[in-house]
Design goal:
rod-shaped; 0% strand
């Protein structure tokens, strides 16, 4: 039972760390975008997604 609790705790910590890393990466992208303005367009071209996560239709 103790091992199970430890596994749950590790998974929780890993997911929290991942979310915070994603958040800081997103903040960095926003700061770079404020400087260059090209970041968002490049992101859309590469992934087909806009900032909100919706697929760009091209219209």
């Amino acid at each position: 039972m103790k091992g199970f609790v430890i596994i749950i705790l590790v998974v929780f910590l890993l997911s929290t760390a991942l979310v915070s890393v994603m958040y800081f990466v997103d903040m960095g992208a926003n700061n770079a975008e404020a400087q260059s303005g090209d970041v968002q367009n490049e992101f859309v071209e590469q992934t087909g997604l806009n900032q909100t996560g919706l697929v760009e239709t091209g219209n």
